[in-house]
Design a protein that fits this description.
Helix 2 (23-39) packs antiparallel against helix 3 (46-60). The model is unreliable at 15-24 (pLDDT under 50). The chain is mainly alpha-helical and 148 residues long. The longest helix has 17 residues, at 23-39. It has a single domain, classed as TerB-like (Orthogonal Bundle). It starts with a helix and ends with a helix. Helices cover 74% and strands 0% of the residues. Residues 28-141 form the Co-chaperone DjlA N-terminal domain. This is Putative tellurite resistance protein B-like protein. InterPro entries: DjlA_N (IPR007791), TerB-like (IPR029024). It holds the Pfam family TerB.
Length: 148
């Protein structure tokens, strides 16, 4: 599965590329984005890992063990992922506006899980917001909602 997804990323810059990202792979790509966002400050803390597991369980109907296994797969995928804006650009074309907002909310929950606001994490999240096409005012609402 990962080889197929990585091949999709590598071929995305090709103008002849027309294969959409399969829905099952989109879930892993979004998980990998959460891992990437959590690592943006050069620290991957227990609180962030725990929040990723929680979000994966909630959004995918998984039990804790299944969520941890999915996160581990997403961690492996994150290592092979292209630039953050490239993966967000791929997701932009295959997920709904509602899913884009849910993804941003999940990402903000992950980066705020450690209780510390880091500039690097902000930059990554704002980059993803821009690529996904979520308006700045709505993105700010989602950011504030994630802190509650």
């Amino acid at each position: 599965m990962f080889e197929h997804l990585i091949a999709l990323f590598r071929n995305h810059g090709d103008p002849a590329y027309t294969t959409p990202l399969p829905q099952a792979d989109a879930r892993h790509a979004m998980g990998a984005l959460m891992v990437r966002a959590a690592k943006a400050d050069q620290a991957y803390l227990f609180e962030e890992i725990n929040m990723i597991d929680k979000v994966l369980a909630e959004r995918n109907g998984l039990n804790p063990v299944e969520a941890a296994k999915m996160r581990a797969a997403c961690e492996n995928l994150e290592k092979e992922m292209p630039a953050t804006d490239a993966i967000a650009s791929i997701l932009k074309d295959v997920i709904s506006a509602e899913e884009k907002e849910a993804t941003l909310l999940a990402l903000w929950r992950v980066v705020f899980a450690d209780g510390v606001k880091h500039e690097q994490e902000d930059l990554v999240l704002h980059q993803i917001e821009d690529v996904l096409g979520v308006p700045a005012d709505r993105a700010k609402q989602l950011q504030m909602q994630s802190m509650q």
